[in-house]
Amino acid sequence: MKFFDWTTNVDGFVSVGTSTCDKLLSDAKMSPRRRSHLLLHESHADPTQRLLVAFDQGSYMQPHRHPEQWEMIVPMRGTLALLLFSDDGYVAERIELTAGSVPISQITVGAWHTVVAMTSSALMLEIKPGPFRVAEFFEQFPTENSPDAGRAANWLTSAKTGDRW
Questions:
Q1: Tens of pLDDT along 104-119?
Q2: CA–CA separation, 130 vs 142, rounded Å?
Q3: Any idea what the Cα angle at residue 120 is, between residues 161 and 35, rounded to 5°?
Q4: Torsion of CA 132, 1, 145, 142, to 10 degrees
């Protein structure tokens, strides 16, 4: 579904309403990935990639990095944990991002990271420079659809600085 199907457009001002955010969170709960997203840009070629990402608790996003892009995360609802990893797989930093209290986190170019929902559901705004580029996944961790993905999701939820998968 395209961004303009989810928004309100009044005199050139476009906004995403509460009902759209609620629908994203509901879709995440029903998705096998326990995640859903809404692209706020029109194409993967756009110079700025913007999207809303909804998480249901237990969603697993394989740790990854963007070798040529920084990434900004703005928590919109609930609480998320941003985990940053060293090159040898240790949790270098864990940052709790709660909507309304931690306004912005920016991940530097090439930093290994992932995000997990700490509340029953969570919503974030993600912004990074375009065009779209495929992330590089941390091979030490299981892929998203593997049998170990659920165990990895549980581990990430409680992992602390200094822990290693």
A1: 899 999 999 999 999 9
A2: 27
A3: 85
A4: 30
Q: What tokens does 153 get? A: 């999701």
The residue count of the chain comes to 165
pLDDT in tens, 32-80: 999 999 999 888 999 999 999 999 999 999 999 999 999 999 999 999 9
Cα–Cα distance, 42 to 113 (Å, whole number): 26
- Which tokens sit at 12? 């050139």
121 vs 22: CA distance, rounded Å? 10
Helix (H, G, I), strand (E, B) or coil at 150: helix
Neighbours of 39 (CB within 10 A): 17
Give 145's contacts (C-beta < 8 A, 6+ positions apart).
none
Concatenating the DSSP letter of every residue in 21-75 gives HHHHHHHHHHSTTSEEEEE-SS-TTSSEEEEEEEEETT-----EE-TT--EEEEE
- Whole-model pTM: value is 0.90
**Checking DSSP bridges between strand 13-16 and strand 7-10, what pairing results, if any?**
antiparallel
**Which tokens sit at 125?**
């705004």
